[in-house]
């Protein structure tokens, strides 16, 4: 999937270059942008622009940096709240499991883990969506308060804030299940605890199954809710807008509306930020956790098929036509996509090495039995003596420990194999990604040739223009010299005086 992600980004570079050239935005620079209207209205002073030389509204850079630092503290505080909610969901899962075990029903006791995981994932999804709405509004106010000069700077700062929060908001729970759940359980007689509760352990099927369940609920649930919102909310806004206009028109003389009036009565377009954010988060789901949830690309494809039609209905029939703005590319979104594609290589390497049973089985095949006979028994450790009641039967648990609770030699060998696999996997994949980046040019060959031709014609036109100007200047100079050599006419009185003399 990492190869697909990098190939996708490389071909997007080519598409971006084609569109930028078509719309004459290849050389568009940020210093060409005019200040934002909000910045102009709220700036405390005026200062000369060092590039254009014109007087423009000015905001002190030191004050802006202090405000950005304060906003960063707010972001960290909100991320801490997300972590608190994550711990709350973990405790909720433990409480639900205990309640199911104490019901006395054999069915509930058997399915206690699945019920707790599914219900906690739904609760987590609700908290994620709620916190996302709250933080987006907060990030917008923080970005306005930071007083960025241009629209590009404003959008980049706002995008970065929201993405950092949404990344932690959406991916913290899957990260916990993938890399932390079941790692600090301990062993019989020495169990680890969190706030007085025993740490969670993975189910009999391992944490990879639970991770796939959680990814399915969060990713697909988010897609369904977003699609419902994109269909229902514009309809409700349009209905409210029509009622408001109908009340105004009720007091006026009825006359047939013109087309531009009907277009103006549509809902005002709120921009494409939510669309970009949705696609980027989906890109993260299908690249970062694809090793645990291979069906993620399929659900993303189905969602995009529905999303295209919903967006077409929304932007064509419900929203006004947005005002176009010049820009050279998609801004900080592309940097985020590149970071996600590189992060996916590392995360998938750790998923394969530490979360799945691929390497333990492979090492067991190499050292003990190529057919994996006795692997399950080998992966179970005996509880230390004295940790169980005298009336209890012998207890075994999943770990590579001896009867004293210490790690066995196989555990340390497996740890070395895991670390070696991660290093080898990352180097091989990153090398292949660099090869793809080198093979696929950022600008299509036909477009590069066209740009060279345009530059040549521009230089040729400039040279011809200079030659024409030079000829005109030479012609004017020669004309002045020719007129200076002509005899100066004199009046008759002067000639008569000269002749008489």
Largest sheet composition: 2 strands, antiparallel
Terminal CA distance? 110 Å
Low-confidence stretches: 489-501
**What structural category do the secondary elements indicate?**
mainly alpha
Secondary-structure element order, N to C: HHEEHHHHEEEEHHHHHHHEEHHH
Gyration radius, to the nearest Å? 35 Å
Spatial shape: globular
Which strand order spans the largest sheet, edge to edge or round the barrel?
1-2
**Count of DSSP helices?**
16
Number of strands: 8
Mean pLDDT over all positions? 82
Q: How helix-rich are the residues, as a percent range?
A: 55-70%
Please state roughly what percent of the residues sit in beta strands, choosing from under 5%, 5-15%, 15-25%, 25-35%, 35-45% or over 45%: under 5%
Subcellular location: Membrane
InterPro entries: Anoctamin, Anoctamin_TM
Protein name: Anoctamin
Family: Belongs to the anoctamin family.
What does this structure look like?
It is a single chain. The strands form four sheets. The protein has a two-stranded antiparallel ribbon. A two-stranded antiparallel sheet has the order 3-4. It starts with a helix and ends with a helix. Among the domains are: 33-201, no CATH class; 205-250 and 259-325. β5 (193-194) and β6 form a beta hairpin. It is 69% helix and 4% strand. It has helices at residues 2-22, 37-42, 61-101, 106-110, 112-145, 151-179, 207-250, 259-264, 273-288, 296-318, 332-355, 358-367, 375-378, 409-439, 445-485, 492-500, and strands at 45-48, 55-58, 186-187, 190-191, 193-194, 197-198, 380-382, 396-398. α1 packs antiparallel against α11 and α3 (61-101) runs antiparallel to α5. With 501 residues, the protein is mainly alpha-helical. One of its GO terms (molecular function) is chloride channel activity. Residues 1-454 form the Anoctamin transmembrane domain.
């Amino acid at each position: 999937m990492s190869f697909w992600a990098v190939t996708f980004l490389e071909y997007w570079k080519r598409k971006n270059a084609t569109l930028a050239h078509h719309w004459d935005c290849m050389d568009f620079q940020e210093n060409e942008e005019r200040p934002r209207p909000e910045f102009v209205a709220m700036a405390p002073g005026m200062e000369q622009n060092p590039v254009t030389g014109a007087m423009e509204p000015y905001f002190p850079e030191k004050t802006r940096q202090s405000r950005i630092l304060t906003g960063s503290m707010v972001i960290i505080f909100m991320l801490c709240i997300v972590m608190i909610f994550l711990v709350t969901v973990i405790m909720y899962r433990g409480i639900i499991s205990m309640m199911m075990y104490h019901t006395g029903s054999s069915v509930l006791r058997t399915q206690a883990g699945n019920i707790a995981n599914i219900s906690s994932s739904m609760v987590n999804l609700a908290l994620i969506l709620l916190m996302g709405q709250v933080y987006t509004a907060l990030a917008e106010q923080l970005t306005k308060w930071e007083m960025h000069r241009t629209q590009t700077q404003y959008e980049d700062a706002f995008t970065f804030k929201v993405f950092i929060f949404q990344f932690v908001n959406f991916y913290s729970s899957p990260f916990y299940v993938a890399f932390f759940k079941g790692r600090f359980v301990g062993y019989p007689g020495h169990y680890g605890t969190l706030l007085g509760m025993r740490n969670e352990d993975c189910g009999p099927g391992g944490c990879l199954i639970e991770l796939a369940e959680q990814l399915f609920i969060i990713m697909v649930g988010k897609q369904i809710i977003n699609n419902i919102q994109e269909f229902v909310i514009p309809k409700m806004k349009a209905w409210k807008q029509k009622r408001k206009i109908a009340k105004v028109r009720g007091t006026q003389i009825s006359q047939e509306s013109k087309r531009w009036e009907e277009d103006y009565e549509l809902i005002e377009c709120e921009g494409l930020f939510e669309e970009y954010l949705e696609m980027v988060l989906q890109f993260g789901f299908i690249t970062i956790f694809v090793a645990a949830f291979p069906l993620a690309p399929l659900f993303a494809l189905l969602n995009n098929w529905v999303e295209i039609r919903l967006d077409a209905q929304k932007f064509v029939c419900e929203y006004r036509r947005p005002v176009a703005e010049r820009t050279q590319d998609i801004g900080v979104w592309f940097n985020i996509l590149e970071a996600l594609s590189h992060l996916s290589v590392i995360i998938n390497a750790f998923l394969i090495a530490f979360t799945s049973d691929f390497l333990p089985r492979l090492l067991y095949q190499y050292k003990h039995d190529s057919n994996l006979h006795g692997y399950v028994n080998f992966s179970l450790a005996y509880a230390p003596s004295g940790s169980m009641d005298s009336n209890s039967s012998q207890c075994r648990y999943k770990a590579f420990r001896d009867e004293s609770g210490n790690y066995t030699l196989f555990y340390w060998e497996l740890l070395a194999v895991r670390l070696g696999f991660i290093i080898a996997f990352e180097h091989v994949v990153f090398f292949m990604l660099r090869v793809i980046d080198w093979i696929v040019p950022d600008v299509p060959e036909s477009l590069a040739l066209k740009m060279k031709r345009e530059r040549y014609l521009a230089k040729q036109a400039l040279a011809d223009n200079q030659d024409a100007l030079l000829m005109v200047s030479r012609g004017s100079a020669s004309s002045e010299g020719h007129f200076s050599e002509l005899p100066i006419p004199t009046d008759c009185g002067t000639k008569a005086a000269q002749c008489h003399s």
